[in-house]
């Protein structure tokens, strides 16, 4: 017996509705993905713009960022600005600091109070202070004295490898064992009585003069939240040093 006409009509209606709902979800997903890609692109453009301002030692304003970079995505400025600021701090060691709330003016300064601008004389266009800050933290995590092999093992996770030129930081061994030693941010010395010779890194006098253990540890608090086992002892030591310094 043939199916009733009304039953066929209902089946066709349900099928059509399912297809419309599926199509609507796909369209919504495509639109969300497209917006995400557009905001990510704007974030990278804003980072490039802020790096130009840093190298020129010029301030910027929210109005300038909106007109020159953000443009039609102004409603998403808080999200884009937040991501760009975090990238500047973690990757390049640069803080985007508000100095005039009345017209939202910002300056770009090296983080943690360091006076080193991260620009070396070989034509490198990107500041490398972010790697220096990472290394200062690694030394603290190793008990103020980091074996060289442990440093390279930790940095390799970031793609920074001994003897391999990095796209952002250049030749890392030269930075770690020469540039930052000459700048007095690091000490690089042979481990006493080691045979064959092994080497280790310590904070240099300029690092001690310009920043503190507590500032460095607070900077990386987001990392310690993922691994809280190292927090108590490191922070207690940093607080003790802070009190002694005071």
UniProtKB/TrEMBL annotation:
Compositionally biased spans, kind Acidic residues: 9-21
GO biological process, alphabetically ordered: negative regulation of transcription by RNA polymerase II
Any Pfam family the entry gives: MAGE
PROSITE patterns per record: MAGE
Transmembrane annotation, as ranges: none
Domain MAGE: 39-238
GO CC term, one of those recorded: nucleus
Region (Disordered): 1-33
Entry-linked PANTHER family: MELANOMA-ASSOCIATED ANTIGEN 10, MELANOMA-ASSOCIATED ANTIGEN MAGE ANTIGEN
UniProt name for this protein: Melanoma-associated antigen 10
Organism: Myotis brandtii
Upper lineage: Eukaryota, Metazoa, Chordata, Craniata, Vertebrata
């Amino acid at each position: 017996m043939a199916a009733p006409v009304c039953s066929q009509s209902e089946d066709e209606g349900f099928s059509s509705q399912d297809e419309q709902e599926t199509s609507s979800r796909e369209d919504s997903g495509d639109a969300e993905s497209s917006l995400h890609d557009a905001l990510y692109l704007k974030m990278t453009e804003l980072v490039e713009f802020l790096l130009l301002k840093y190298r020129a030692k010029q301030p910027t304003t929210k109005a300038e960022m909106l007109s020159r970079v953000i443009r039609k995505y102004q409603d998403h400025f808080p999200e884009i600005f937040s991501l760009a600021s975090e990238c500047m701090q973690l990757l390049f060691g640069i803080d985007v600091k508000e100095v005039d709330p009345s017209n939202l003016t910002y300056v770009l300064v090296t983080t943690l109070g360091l006076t080193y601008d991260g620009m070396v004389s070989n034509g490198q266009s990107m500041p490398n202070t972010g790697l220096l800050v990472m290394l200062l933290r690694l030394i603290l995590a190793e008990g103020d004295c980091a074996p060289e092999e442990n440093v390279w093992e930790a940095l390799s996770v970031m793609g920074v490898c001994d003897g391999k030129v990095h796209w952002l930081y250049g030749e890392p061994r030269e930075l770690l064992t020469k540039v930052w030693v000459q700048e007095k941010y690091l000490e690089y010395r042979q481990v006493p009585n080691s045979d064959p010779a092994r080497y280790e890194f310590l904070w240099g006098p300029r690092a001690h003069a310009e920043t503190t253990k507590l500032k460095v540890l607070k900077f990386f608090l987001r990392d310690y939240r993922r691994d809280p086992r190292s927090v108590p002892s490191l922070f207690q030591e940093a607080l003790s040093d802070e009190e002694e310094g005071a």
